[in-house]
Amino acid sequence: MEWTGACYADTPTTEVRVWIDAPPDMVWAVVSDIELMPGMSEELRSVEWLDGAAGPAVGARFVGRSEHEAFGAWETTSHVIECEARSVLAWAVEDPARPSAVWRFRLRPRDGGTELSQWMQLGPGRSGLSAAIDRMPEKEQKIVFVRMREFERAMTHTLAQIKQRAEA
């Protein structure tokens, strides 16, 4: 059976959403505190702001340290590319002009609470996944598909954790 799906160069994306019974201010307090994220992620081990930054703002940078069974441990520097309090927080991983990934939280008031979405785009810059694809180019679409499903599951888990904290 032939495998069909996205290639890395297609910059595949995924998005998950959740409704939270809390106002955007309370959800933003959790989303914008990136140092909470390792406690809500299976891969992310630690996060710290760089260059004296104390919170998100366009141009602020942070380092994240992650670990995955198949990829080992790695460290990346991310650059905040969008930041509007109670509305959106996005960052590009490594080179903002050609990131290895882009991540975005978007908050929208809805039905007396907040709709929170988390979106991510893989590529176009090289990432740890690129090495796996280099070793097995014939399996590129399957590698990308599996990794995108991992991201989707992880994001669903993260949003559930944010929901729990914001509603508490």
TrEMBL record:
<dbReference type="InterPro" id="IPR023393">
    <property type="entry name" value="START-like_dom_sf"/>
</dbReference>
<dbReference type="Pfam" id="PF10604">
    <property type="entry name" value="Polyketide_cyc2"/>
</dbReference>
<protein>
    <submittedName>
        <fullName>Cyclase</fullName>
    </submittedName>
</protein>
<dbReference type="InterPro" id="IPR019587">
    <property type="entry name" value="Polyketide_cyclase/dehydratase"/>
</dbReference>
